[in-house]
Amino acid sequence: MKIILAALNAKYVHSNLAVYDLQAYAKVQLNQITCRKQPEILIKEYTINHNLDLILQSLYREKAAVVAFSCYIWNIHEILTIARELHKVSPETHIWLGGPEVSYDSEKLLANNPFVEGIIRGEGEVTFYELVKIWMQKDDWKYGIDAEDVYEGVLGITYRDSEARICNNHGRPPMSMDEIPFIYEDLAGFENKILYYETSRGCPFSCSYCLSSIDKRVHFRSLTLVKNELQFFLDHNVPQVKFIDRTFNCNQEHALTIWKYLTEHDNGITNFHFEIAADLLGEEELALFRRMRPGLIQLEIGLQSTNPDTVKEIHRTMNIEKLKMNMLAVQDMHNIHQHLDLIAGLPYEDFVTFQKSFNEAYEMKPDQLQLGFLKVLKGSYMEEQVENYGLQYQDYQPYEVLQTKWLSYDEVLALKKVEEMVEVYYNSDQFNHTIPYLMNFFETPFAFYEAIGDYYEENGLFGIGFKREARYEALRKFMLQCMEKCDMTCFSHTVLDNLLTYDYYLRENAKSRPSWCLGEAVDKAEYHNFFKNGGNDEIDLTHTGYDSKVAARMMHIEPVSLPAMKWIRDASNNPVGNEVPESAATSAICYCLFDYDHRNPLSKDAKVFVLTHL
Question: What is the pTM of this model?
């Protein structure tokens, strides 16, 4: 018998932890019982960008007795499309669904999709194993299963009985997380993938937009197991491990123990990602963070809103001032990437209060600011309040908000432009010196991103596949237009062009100069002589194995004006490793030496040495 666990991931680099857990748990349990023949349980992973017909062909060729799909908000449409077609060409294949997207309206989903036989609700490991045992007992699948006889005692499922009636069995209580096998003992198949890992399930908070709030029973994997598994990742130099714990630091002792272990056993390579409540961080955690290697961990923080009425209405527990204080403290360490989330479309959040939330979030200086839009998830408290909030949202995935009692669709569209500009000019990490300079000429950060969004719309720039250099050109032209329309006292066109140049070369080892660069490039003969000489009296580049030709290729020298260098030197967000000495102020022009072999582990910026002469 062949059973397929099918996953449609959002991207190729993703993997689906759920199907691997189901497969691993079932295999361990089956090995402990006497059975005539073990079923073949296979995992088939695709992405939502795959051609759906090719996925259908792939699943059909497996000739499986059961195909069980892992369902999420981003893939449910594609899965139902594939499942419907698979049933047409292979009606003897039994189709099951599981996952958060089908766990809270399972009866309605079965009623609307007669080709689906059943749904696994909630935690699926034990339920899937019990179903596998039932399927194994049926020798002849041609005549189907008498569902009324065999499924009645299985907790956590919704199914059709032998008379096509939809039955909804009682839910299954949480299992011990220690019973879940570690799925990564063999890393074959996970090359070039992000590895997902969990040490807890459930969430103690009650946020109305989130499904995790439905079950507040948080249960943990024992730290003895966790430490052994973390060591496996470290020993194998895994590039990144993403913890999927909903609020990783809801238990301080649990979180601290793991963070201490990672700090003490750091391999210098692996990055660990955590979703946390930043306001729960204490001095002990902050002191530990200061000891960490740059890039050892990264933090994702859900702010969502700073409007007190909104925070109260969505049942969120949060000390915003402490969150801000902790984020700024971590930012000053220059060793931990912080990702901050905002949600537009929440109750009591109108266009004005959202601007305030945005500006206050911006002041927290996250490395990435994610402006998202409310998703009205099935089974959430938010869904129950649709009428009270005047919520209009998409009928199809991802069920995103269109308008609310407080926010019109026109305003949603205005925020969409801001979202895009934040992605391009903030989250890209490519304008880290230019944008802070430009902020001096706008009343608020929101006003800047709103204005450049309007510029993009007026000039038909949305939806264009830009080359990187063109993004700089667009920003430059936008600011020149602003200069013509407004009196921007103290604005310097020269500083802007030099900051654009500096930011450009921080990331790009480009040998052809962009069009906005001022002055003359370094003379080629002088450039190559510099490297032949191994530097000058200000910097010695020579080291064991030094090759002047390689150095000339892997470095770049660019003249930058004194006013721009003063701005870079004095800016509070000056990146770690970019050395801008006071001596730069003694020269009318400086020379920035960009070293692309040595990059900032967080921003990926080249290391910079500022020279007064060549």
Answer: 0.90
